[in-house]
UniProtKB/TrEMBL annotation:
Protein name: CD166 antigen
Major localisation: membrane
Transmembrane regions: 488-510
Membrane topology qualifier: Single-pass type I membrane protein
GO process annotations (BP): adaptive immune response; cell adhesion
SUPFAM superfamilies for the chain: Immunoglobulin
Length: 543
């Protein structure tokens, strides 16, 4: 190729090139020479060859080696003429990959500062350096983007080093920006580029917002919990200290970004705030500490006498609606207990338990151990067994603590040890003996507990005389039914007696009235007949 009419050779730095002399050899050639020319300098001869010799003589030129771009001239000399043919040699050297050196430790927003220097070395010819942010070319902008490109040449090698410094005013959005630089250079085949490795800088910017949060992030907080207040600012680097404002405290408490509270109570409910140390940029949150109080009256172990009244109350105080239920002897009750007249079956372990809705783990319970005491009560029954050979005597006993039962028989007064007892349920049980008395006897049932000793006796005829008493109590329900039926019969009998009495009174008044009328109408009758009637009336009245 030629440039401005010159034959041009493009070569890569470090290669060996051959330059032929492009002149036709003239007749009468004496010798040929090579020289190179540089602007504003005298030509330098570098090689000589005689037409009669094959060897080339090279001139001692110290700076001949490592020369770059020059104009080489081939000279052919005859006696009459000198012919010259110039050749332009262009040498290209790829620069090193650009590096960003002297990087800033961090960048501050709204402040023009040196970001770094992009350096690309050993280029020929000299190259150009440009800067990029996230792959987009950075153009110089007053007081925001200042680029300064410096080029230096090595006098020994003639190679260029390009150094471009970048002053930059970052914004908050530059926190994750990728900065890079690129060198553009020329090679034998044209323009080429090499990119540096990207660099991300730590961008410092002030806090613009403060946020307070409660840890752990639970929807509910209950008494006894441990909670941590965490305050954060959106600056970089984030603030390390804050002022925490606690309900009831007028001054802020200086602390790191966390403030811990252990075993919180209900009085911790309220508004919590935090701010920067200079009291700017504040945020707040409201904390509700849920609580649950249960008051059972009475509670613990309570001993009462049968028939007494016992008011029981389970009072709840809570931060939100609570669910209350009762348990007696491990069985959930349908209604709250209420005792107007205590019975033995009312004794037991009562638990009032409450939970707070939607607050996990907040549960309270209290226990009432109710003991119903009573003095021993005895009822004795007898019946002749179907075989007519024996009689069964039953001592029905009520009382708590459970009474001990003894039997005695009139005469010898010995203790009968063959009694059989039923199961003790709800303060009741029975002791039963079977006897075959040859004569009339009296049996005595003795029931005794810590409260009293009760004695009841029953006359029992000889086995030859059948006798029956009330049937044994099968159960509490049967006893109640029998009692109800007895009350009904007694009521009917009493009612009939009253009706008969009223009828008798009415009849007596009627008879009396009739007698008086007879005296006036029949006053002339003889005394004998009158006396008879009086006697009859008197007899009827007595009747």
């Amino acid at each position: 190729p030629s440039a401005l009419g010159l034959y041009t050779v493009n070569a890569v730095y470090g290669d060996t090139i051959t330059m032929p002399c492009r002149l036709e050899v003239p007749d009468g050639l004496m010798f040929g020479k090579w020289k190179y020319e540089m602007p504003n300098e005298s030509p330098v001869f570098i090689a000589f060859r005689s037409s009669t010799k094959k060897n080339v003589q090279y001139d001692d030129v110290p700076d001949y080696k490592d020369r770059e771009e020059k104009r080489f001239v081939c000279m052919l000399v005859t006696e009459d003429d000198v012919s010259e043919e110039p050749t332009l040699v262009k040498v290209f050297k790829q620069p090193s990959q650009p590096e960003i050196l002297h990087q800033a430790d961090f960048l501050e927003t709204e402040k023009l500062q040196m970001l770094g220097e992009c350096v690309s070395r050993d280029s020929y010819p000299e190259g150009n350096v440009t800067w990029y942010r996230n792959g987009r070319l950075l153009q110089p902008l007053e007081e925001a983007v200042v680029i300064d490109l410096q080029k230096s040449v090595n006098r020994t090698t003639g190679l260029f080093t390009m150094t471009s410094s970048l002053q930059y005013m970052p914004k908050k959005e530059d926190a994750n920006a990728r900065f890079s630089c690129m060198v553009t250079y020329y090679g034998p085949s044209g323009q080429k580029t090499i990119q540096s490795e990207p660099v991300v800088f730590d961008v410092h910017y002030p806090t613009e917002k403060v946020t307070i949060e409660v840890l752990p992030q639970s929807s509910t907080i209950k008494e006894g919990d441990n909670i941590t207040l965490k305050c954060s600012g959106n600056g970089n680097p984030p603030p390390q200290e804050f002022l925490f404002y606690i309900p009831g405290e007028t001054e802020g408490i200086r602390s790191s970004d966390t403030y811990m509270m252990t075993d919180v109570r209900r009085n911790a409910t309220g508004e919590y705030k935090c701010s920067l140390i200079d009291k700017s940029m504040m945020d707040s949150t409201t904390i509700t500490v849920h609580y649950l109080d249960l008051q059972l009256t009475p509670s613990g172990e309570v001993t009462k006498q049968i028939g007494e009244a016992l008011p029981v109350s389970c009072t709840i105080s809570s931060s939100r609606n609570a669910t209350v239920f009762w348990i007696k002897d491990n069985t959930r009750m349908q209604t709250s207990p209420s005792f107007s007249s205590l019975q033995y079956q009312d004794a037991g372990n009562y638990i009032c338990e409450t939970t707070l809705q939607e607050v996990e783990g907040l549960k309270k319970r209290k226990t009432l151990k109710l003991i119903v005491e009573g003095k021993p009560q005895i009822k004795m029954t007898k019946k002749t067994n179907t075989n007519k050979m024996s009689k069964t005597i039953v001592c029905h006993v009520e009382g708590f603590p459970k009474p001990a039962v003894q039997w005695t028989v009139t005469g010898s007064g010995s203790i009968i040890n063959k009694a059989k007892e039923t199961k003790y349920v709800n303060g009741r049980f029975s002791s039963k003996i079977v006897i075959a008395p040859e004569e009339n006897v009296t049996l005595t049932c003795i029931a005794e507990n810590e409260l009293e000793r009760t004695v009841t006796s029953l006359n029992v005829s000889a086995i030859s005389i059948p006798e029956y008493d009330e049937p044994e109590d099968r159960s509490d329900d049967n006893s109640e039914k029998v009692n109800d039926q007895a009350k009904l019969i007694v009521g009917i009998v009493v009612g009939l007696l009253l009706v008969a009495l009223v009828a008798g009174v009415v009849y007596w008044l009627y008879v009396k009235k009739s007698k008086t009328a007879s005296k006036h109408v029949d006053k002339d009758l003889g005394n004998i007949e009158e006396n008879k009637k009086l006697e009859e009336n008197n007899h009827k009245s007595e009747t």
